[in-house]
Amino acid sequence: MSLRFTKFDAVAHRAKATHNIDVANAIAKLPDDARDWQVTALFYAAVHLIQAYFAAIGSSYPQTHQDRDHAIIQDRRLRKIYNDYRELKQAAVASRYLCWPVNDFDVSEAKRHLAMVQAFIDNALATSEPPVHRDS
């Protein structure tokens, strides 16, 4: 089975990013052993911010994490935040699949990386050209 994602607009992706940040903040109130999900929610907030960027500029829409990594590296503007995005991704993967214990410092670092991504996307979208409308 192959999934193809519906392309949403930048507003919908930014709303989902905000939702994921709210979820991460709610998880912070749970016992410490839920920090892995906090880091994961922060990573997915970054995913939706990146998707918002691509939707806003009318670019191709990455369908997988691998496609998104490649698209970030290929975009001359986004390339600047790739390390922050990659750190978030690695923390989420390590905590979910490798049973990596997540401590308060790890959560703090994830928040810092997300803040870098969010600030960059906010600035990029505020200064970008209007999107190119394409018939699909």
Largest sheet: none
As a percent range, the share of strand residues is under 5%
Helix/strand class:
mainly alpha
How do the SSEs run, as a string of H and E? Answer: HHHHH
Number of helices: 5
Low-confidence stretches: 130-136
Label the overall shape: globular
Total beta strands = 0
Task: Measure the end-to-end span.
Answer: 23 Å
Rg from alpha-carbon coordinates: 15 Å
The percent of residues in helical segments reads 55-70%
Structure, briefly:
This protein is mostly helical and 136 residues long.
What does this protein look like?
This protein is an all-alpha fold. Helix content is 67%, strand content 0%. It contains five helices and no strands. Helix 2 packs parallel to helix 5 and helix 4 runs antiparallel to helix 5. The protein starts with 9 loop residues before the first helix and ends in a 9-residue tail after the last helix. The C terminus is likely disordered.
